[in-house]
Design a protein that fits this description.
alpha/beta; Rossmann fold; 7 helices; disordered N terminus; Carboxymethylenebutenolidase homolog; Dienelactn_hydro; hydrolase activity
Length: 245
């Protein structure tokens, strides 16, 4: 997402050549990608995409990883049919583009998705993860949605909810040390505010040398120096979900 000095220099990173093991479904007015584990479960994770949208193979790869770890994973189109950002778009138009896609205004869609998970999939316990734009959406949901158990915000845009820290549910925040979009001073301030205001369990973790998007937009075989941190970030995410779901 954006900061004051440079409107969202989000690089799509390594676009995975990945088809996905799940299927696309229609959930009321929303399309969604769903992947289910081999064994039946009453636990699910809502995956909130970044600015590149719900069809990005990288995000579906993470959804499938969650399914491999025993969760029903659903990645809805939170842009609700509006076009995702494309790397070829003019960054000068980004601020206008993102104004019509507010990470703090997804409650209607989330309610639809939660109803689907409970009614159609028999789910009782639901968590949420999100990347970049979706990471900000996770923080929004952790502040207000009583039906979710826990959340993981991966390089979520801090300034989007800079003055709100009274989280309802345990939340894990993942950041990269070298993230051009989220300066470390913002992360430090977030930690201070959470310490002062948050009454539930939370963790803020900074991964050494990592840039924006490292958990889902870098490939271990292309970025071997980052491989330990990519794997650590993914495992930390799973461990947090396992603990609270």
């Amino acid at each position: 997402m954006a900061n004051e000095s440079r409107p969202c220099p989000c690089d799509i990173g390594d676009r995975f050549d990945y088809g996905g093991r799940g299927q696309e479904v229609q959930v009321e007015h929303i399309k969604a990608y769903v992947c289910k584990p081999p064994a039946s479960t009453d636990k699910a994770v809502v995956v909130i995409h970044d600015i590149f949208g719900w069809q990005l193979p990288n995000t579906r790869y993470i959804a499938d990883m969650l399914a491999t770890n025993g969760y029903i994973a659903i990645c809805p189109d939170f842009f609700v049919g509006q076009e995702a950002w494309k790397p070829s778009n003019d960054w000068a138009s980004f601020d206008d583009w993102v104004k019509t896609r507010d990470a703090g205004k997804i409650d209607k869609e989330v309610d639809v998705v939660l109803k689907y998970l409970k009614d159609q999939c028999g789910v009782k316990n639901i968590g949420v993860i999100g990347f970049c734009w979706g990471g900000a959406a996770v923080q929004h949901l952790m502040l207000k949605n009583p039906h979710l158990k826990t959340g993981v915000s991966l390089y979520g845009v801090i300034r989007r909810f800079a003055d709100k820290h009274s989280l309802l549910h345990p939340t894990f925040f993942i950041f990269g040390e070298k993230d051009d979009i989220i300066p470390l001073e913002q992360v430090t301030l977030l930690e201070q505010k959470l310490k002062q205001n948050c009454k539930v369990d939370y963790e803020v973790k900074i991964y050494p040398g990592q840039t924006h998007g490292f958990v889902h937009r870098k490939r271990e075989d292309i970025n071997p120096q980052d491989k330990p941190y990519i794997e650590e970030g993914r495992q930390d995410m799973i461990n947090w979900l396992n603990k609270y779901l």
